[in-house]
Each structure stands twice: as structure tokens, then as C-alpha cells.
Specification:
With 263 residues, this protein is an alpha/beta fold. It has 12 helices and 7 strands. The protein is 53% helix and 19% strand.
């Protein structure tokens, strides 16, 4: 019995070390391994173990640790959760300041975000908007949208944000009629990577981009958007710049592509 107990204790200790330290450290520099480990294995394991989803756990962390009405504390609570508790695919605390700087530079009156997830980048963008500005954010997954609305409200930014559930491809052609917006000053692409090019072309076709509109695309290296990079870098209608960074909360290379629409 003592031998069985000893083997059990040692096995549990080994599994604990592997789960909490060795494997996370090993996947830090490889984006695809990090995505598989965190976004497939760990997330599913914790979903079963806790009977909740990762977005629900993130919301709980915000409610417990962030001050209501304080967007910066919401951002800090999510970043802490993702670095120390459970990884999640937000734009993150390294690429986040790049997003902030571009939004501040553009100072948009009208902004569009494709891919809300849990509202992290929505909060980052909305907190920087001047009074009277509009941010429309689009989320395909209704379960994510439920969480995002609560996180945005906790940050006190619900009056600045219109969250729309559904497909970006369905929504974009209806934006002018539905929201009375003639064009966008700023567009943040952070949804399905294979939708970057089709949705950019759709924005062009619907005349929702004007001369000087800034598009900022996340995760252009990991998971990667080679078709989008080829499109904006080779098109005479865009002037593009790459911001090198790392995949959120890891050391794997990733980056943001800023593209100015030239008309």
C-alpha cells in the first residue's frame, strides 16, 4: 500500500510540474504549439473540470478583480488572468499598446472591430474614443457576445459600443442602412483569419473605406494571414507597415499590420 501511495504521489507531482511549468515553458516560443496546448488541450480540460467555459472564467476574474467603470482595471484583470491563470487569445498586453497608439493617432469618429471575443480589445479601443464617436464590434459566436457585453458594461463603456452578433459577411453590406455610417476611420480585424481578405474587399465594395481609413490586422504571423498580407502589401490602394511583436502572452513571433487606404 505504501508503494502504491508513493507511486501515486510521485505521478501526481510529475503531472503537476508538467502541466504548470514544463509544458507551458516549452511551448512559449512556438506559436502553433502554444495554440494547440492552450486553446485545445488546456481549455477543454478546464471546461470539463470546472463545468464552465474560458470566457465565463475570464468574466469571473473581471468581476472579482476589476473596478466597475474603470476600463484600465478591466484590461489589467484580463491580462493578469491570461498570464498567470489561463491563456486566452486577446490582443494582449504587448500588442495592446500598439493598438492603443494607432487608435490614438487616428482618433476615429467611426470605428469597426471584426471579432469581439470577450471584449478585451473592444475595451482598449472604446476607452480611447472621443465623445460622440461610434464603435461597432461584430461577434459571430453568441456565447462570446454574452460575456463581452458584461465585460464592456463592467468597464462602463456600453454607451460607446454597439455589439452586433452574426457573420461579418452578412453585416458589412447592411452597415450604412442599419447604422447610418457612410465610412469608417478605423477598422480592427481580429476574427477568422480566412475572412480578412473577403471582408476587406467587401468594405471596399460597399464604399465603407475612405481615403485615409486605417486598417489594423492582428495575428498576421500566428496563426497567420499570408493572403491578407499579400493583398494589402501589393495593392496600390494601400500603404502598409508591419509591427513586429509576439503572440499574446507568449514569446512566439506575431505582429500587427497597419494599412492606410489610399482610395
Amino acid at each position: 500500500m505504501l508503494s502504491v501511495l508513493a507511486v501515486t504521489v510521485v505521478s501526481a507531482a510529475v503531472l503537476y510540474v508538467l502541466y504548470h511549468w514544463l509544458i507551458p515553458a516549452a511551448v512559449q516560443s512556438n506559436g502553433w504549439l502554444a495554440l494547440i496546448w492552450h486553446d485545445v488541450i488546456v481549455e477543454r480540460f478546464l471546461n470539463i473540470l470546472t463545468g464552465s467555459s474560458r470566457p465565463q472564467r475570464m468574466l469571473k476574474a473581471v468581476q472579482q478583480n476589476a473596478t466597475k467603470g474603470d476600463p484600465q482595471s478591466v484590461i489589467a484583470a484580463i491580462d493578469y488572468f491570461c498570464r498567470h491563470k489561463e491563456w486566452a487569445m486577446n490582443v494582449g498586453d504587448e500588442k495592446g499598446p500598439i493598438l492603443d497608439s494607432v487608435v490614438s493617432e487616428v482618433n476615429p469618429r467611426t470605428a469597426l472591430e471584426l471579432g469581439t471575443y470577450c471584449g478585451y480589445s473592444t475595451v482598449r479601443i472604446a476607452r480611447l474614443l472621443s465623445p460622440g464617436s461610434k464603435l461597432i464590434t461584430v461577434e459571430f459566436n453568441p456565447a462570446y457576445a454574452v460575456i463581452a457585453r458584461q465585460i464592456i458594461a463592467h468597464a462602463g463603456l456600453q454607451d460607446k459600443v454597439t455589439l452586433v452578433e452574426g457573420s461579418s459577411g452578412d453585416l458589412i453590406p447592411k452597415i450604412k442602412e442599419r447604422f447610418g455610417i457612410t465610412s469608417f476611420d478605423f477598422v480592427f480585424l481580429d476574427h477568422w483569419k480566412d475572412r480578412y481578405v473577403p471582408d476587406t474587399k467587401l468594405l471596399e465594395d460597399c464604399n465603407l473605406l475612405k481615403k485615409g481609413t486605417v486598417l489594423l490586422a492582428d495575428n498576421v504571423i500566428c496563426p497567420g494571414t499570408p493572403e491578407y498580407l499579400a493583398y494589402v502589401r501589393n495593392s496600390p490602394h494601400y500603404e502598409s507597415r508591419y509591427y513586429r511583436s509576439h503572440l499574446e502572452y507568449t514569446k512566439a513571433e506575431d505582429g500587427l499590420e497597419k494599412s492606410v487606404f489610399l482610395g
